[in-house]
Amino acid sequence: MQLSDAAFQDIRKAVHSLCGIVISVDKQYLVKSRLEAILKSNGLPSYEALVQRLNQPGSRPLQDQVIEAITTKETSFNRDGHPYDELRRTVLMDLASRLIERKASPRLFSPKVRIWCAAVATGQEAYSVAMAVTDFLAARPGLGLTPDDFPILASDISCNALATAREGRYTTAELGRGLNHDQRDRFFRQENGAWVVAPSLRRMVEFRPLNLVQPLPNLGTFDLILCRNLLIYFDESTRRRLCQGLHAALNPQGLLLVGAAESLYGVSDAFEAERLGNTVVHRKS
To answer: Which pTM does this prediction carry?
Structure first.
C-alpha cells in the first residue's frame, strides 16, 4: 500500500496534534511500516482514508492505535547511570531534609516527597527511582522515613507500555540493560522465565495514562519530576508549553530532571540549572 507524500504530510500534522511528536521528513518509510497494520485491521483502503477517519468524531480508539504505533518506547533501568547515583548521593537527601521540615508544619505542603516520572514507557525508570529511594533510606535509618514517604506517580501516553509497567515482568536482556547482579537479586525474582519486580517496589509506584501535550489534570504538586528523553521529540513551542506545565506542578525549590542530551536553554528561564557531579538538575526558581 502506497504512502503518498501528501498523505505523509497529513499524518505528520495529525500525529503532532495528537501527541506533540514531530516526525522528521525522512521518516516516511518508518511511518508506512508502523501504520500499515492499522489500515488492515480497521479495513481502511489507504493512508488518505486513515487521515480522514482520524479527523472524524468518535475516532479516539483509532487515534490511540496511531499513538501506540508511532511513539518510541526506548528505555532501560538506571538509564545513563549518573542521575541515579546522584539521587542516592545528594538529591534524595535534599528532598528528605525538606520533608522533615514539612512534617513539623504539614499544613503548608503534603507531608510526603512526591515524585513524578512523566514519560515512564514500560516502567524501568519508575522502578529505578524506587530502587534508589529504597537504597537511600536503608543507608540512613536515623531519618525515620519509609518508602511510603516517597510515593511515585508514573505516567505515559501509551496504555500498552503502562500495562507492561504495571505487570513488572522483564526479560533477562531487559534487566541486563542497566541493572547489576546485586540489584537484580535484591529487587526481582525469577518466575516462568521472566524477572518480576519485588512487591516492595511495586507498592511505591502508581501508574496512570497521561498525554502531556494536553492540558494537565490536577495531579497535585511534586518535589521531583523526571521528564527524561521526551523533549527531543517535540518542537520548540511544545517544549515551552510542557515546561510551563511541569514548572507549575513543582513545589517551591522542586527539581526537574531531563535527559542527558536535553537542555532547557532557550526553552524555559523559570528554572535554575545546578550541576551535581555529572548530572544537571533544574530547580524551580
So the answer is: 0.95
